[in-house]
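Give me the fold.
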Amino acid sequence: MAALDTTRTTTGSFGLVGRIGATFAMVVNAVVEWNDARVTRNALSGLSDRELEDIGLCRGDIEIVVEGRR
């Protein structure tokens, strides 16, 4: 008869497979963040100076907004 221990909690790494999965997730997250920054930069760059002024920005603020410092 086999017994399954269900009282254990899973913490930490799952060895090589866990590290590979964590690395893959980290790469995917970096690509998603890069794409979000690219889309935001393109959208703000497409606005006129007047439209940027309406939302309280100037052309020099675009990179600051994209980097998330504002």
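The chain has a mean pLDDT of 86.
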